[in-house]
Amino acid sequence: MYQIIAPTLFQNKICRLPGIGTLVMIPHAAETDFVNGRLKAPFETIDFKEAEQHENLFNEFSAMSELLLKELNENGSVVLPGIGTFNKENNTGIQFIAITIDPVFNQPIEVERVTRQDALHAILVGDQKTTNVEMAGFFSEQPTKGDRWWILAIVLALAGIIALILYSFLGGAMSLGNSSYY
């Protein structure tokens, strides 16, 4: 009776059950595990959001939802093949427990990272097209030596300071200013 829910959910990634709630497929991307050299498989989980009390929707599942609610109220749980189980306990709301996928279907695969040094391919740098070989050459260039004029300026300044110090200690300071010998 409820066999139409699973194909609708898996195809549309969402299935609204009026009066019960919404089932949504949540995708999880593949993950790389470089340390162990593996690629973990992508997978999807089913999430359930219970319907609000004031929510009055009508769609192709309205009649099925009423039957599902009736069975939930009588039995306390309803199993949807391939999806999971709805549970209702003492008017606390509806809980959904999704089925777990057999780990056999989500085995990681062994991968090896390959870097081809001699492969030539076009890349876009800013707004200019270039190749990976040109960019490798650009980044391997040694930086050019800058102007070193400041070294000469420091040497000349030190020479001037030393000359002034020697001049003042060797008696040249006596002839400076208004001093005179009588």
What does this structure look like?
With 182 residues, this protein is α+β, with helices and mostly antiparallel strands. The protein has a domain at 5-110. The protein is 29% helix and 27% strand. It is built from 4 helices and 11 strands; from the N terminus they run H-E-E-E-E-E-H-E-E-E-E-E-E-H-H. The protein has helices spanning 5-12, 62-75, 132-140, 149-169; strands spanning 14-17, 21-28, 31-33, 38-40, 43-50, 77-80, 84-88, 94-98, 109-110, 122-125, 128-131. A 3-stranded antiparallel beta sheet has the order 1-2-5. A hairpin with a 5-residue loop joins strand 7 and strand 8 (94-98). The longest helix has 21 residues, at 149-169. The radius of gyration is 40 Å and the shape is elongated.
Please tally the β strands and state the result.
11
* Helix proportion: 25-40%
Instruction: Provide the spatial order of strands within the biggest beta sheet.
Output: 1-2-5
Number of helices: 4
Pattern of helices and strands: HEEEEEHEEEEEEHH
Q: Which percent range describes the beta-strand content?
A: 25-35%
End-to-end Cα distance, whole Å, is 131 Å
Spatial shape: elongated
The average pLDDT is 83
The low-pLDDT segments are none
Tell me about the largest β-sheet.
3 strands, antiparallel
What structural category arises from helix and sheet content? alpha+beta
Q: Quaternary arrangement of the chains shown?
A: single chain
Calculate Rg over CA atoms.
40 Å
